[in-house]
Write the structure tokens for this entry.
Amino acid sequence: METPDNPDNIVDFITGKKIPNIGAEANRQQVERFLVEEKGYQRENIIVDAPIQVEIDEEVYRSKVDMIVQIEGKPLIAIKCAAGSLGSREREIISVARLYAESPLPMAVVSDGFEATVLDTLNGKHVGKALADIPSCAEALVLVKKGPLPPISPDRLLRERLVFRSYDSMNVNVRGRGE
């Protein structure tokens, strides 16, 4: 919901659109800027509010992912920006990274704009504990060349969908959910 005359709006660093400054939006702006200015990504490499939908019991659940980083059109990193505890959002972003594309994205990140937890999507283990540990654009190119990860097994897929929906449905003070 874009409201251009609202004084509480800010301009999104990636899209250039005016957006409400609610929830963890300021944190997301810091991460967006960091990815471009420090990690060497182009704005075109970052999808903001990336749509995601999952089917559970023949019903479609729609939401948005804070950011998806892609190289050469291949999604590689799912990012959740949070205000507060990063640990409480790790499982949510791992499920997003496992569900977003046909094969899992290699990395998942939770950040508050100052700190970050970088996770290996396949095993859910920490591979970094700082913004600096997010792969650079050059490192992401290496991930692209490795090829896609194996798909999630069908029985595990349903569990991941349920985990994602459970965590995502608890998100408050976010803009654009389910649009």
In short: The two ends are 10 Å apart (CA to CA).
